[in-house]
């Protein structure tokens, strides 16, 4: 529309648990991708005639299925997502054309149907930073700026608070109360006021405040 030629992506978090994910390439980039896929619970297959020493150890520990040969058409059958992590542009192009599912070719957006953002992870906190492929370096820089702010402002309190909130939210949802009151409680728990308490007084202070709210309502 108009003169806007920018490439826009739809941000989404995928549940990869027990999903077949195929990674083509067993080098250092492939290793970094494999770690994240395994952490996400993926049923990972790596296709490569060579693996880094780290990946060899992981293969020996049965962390993934290793197909010890170059990529062949048909290797992607049944895959939920595919990542091409090789330095061979022709091979990455071949993998991209063969893929009937979302495909990411590392540092080659022309072969991608999805890109992987720069990630901040602190327990349940997961923040994705992307420049839509325009500048992965800037995305990494922005991620570091946000990380520094979170660590300086909250230390590990934010991670502890999210752990508490997981149980607290379940408890609030289980109580027999009107919808508006329930939403009001949960809205406060995720408000800037609550975060200010977390950053200034700590997790214990906000936990006590939220528990008092529940006690008042139940009584």
Outline of the structure:
This protein has about 220 residues and is α/β, with parallel strands linked by helices. It is built from eight helices and seven strands, in the order E-H-E-H-E-E-H-E-E-E-H-H-H-H-H. The mean pLDDT is about 90.
Describe the structure.
The chain has 219 residues and is an alpha/beta fold. It folds into three domains: 97 residues, NAD(P)-binding Rossmann-like Domain (Rossmann fold, 3-Layer(aba) Sandwich), CATH 3.40.50; 33 residues; 62 residues, no CATH class. It has a five-stranded parallel β-sheet, with helices on both faces. Strand 1, helix 1 and strand 2 form a beta-alpha-beta unit. It is elongated. The model has no long low-confidence stretch (mean pLDDT 92).
CATH superfamily of the largest domain, by name, is NAD(P)-binding Rossmann-like Domain
Low-confidence stretches: none
Oligomer: single chain
| Major sheet details | 5 strands, parallel
Q: What string, H for helix and E for strand, traces the elements in order?
A: EHEHEEHEEEHHHHH
Provide the structure class: alpha/beta
CATH architecture of the largest domain: 3-Layer(aba) Sandwich
At the first level of CATH, the class of the largest domain is Alpha Beta
Strand order of the largest sheet: 3-2-1-4-5
Distance between the termini: 57 Å
CATH fold field value of the largest domain: Rossmann fold
Number of strands: 7
Q: What would the principal axes of the Cα set say about the shape?
A: elongated
Summarize the amount of helix as a percent range: 40-55%
Supply the number of helical segments. Answer: 8
Task: Give average pLDDT, whole number.
Answer: 92
Number of domains: 3
Q: Rg to the nearest angstrom? A: 22 Å
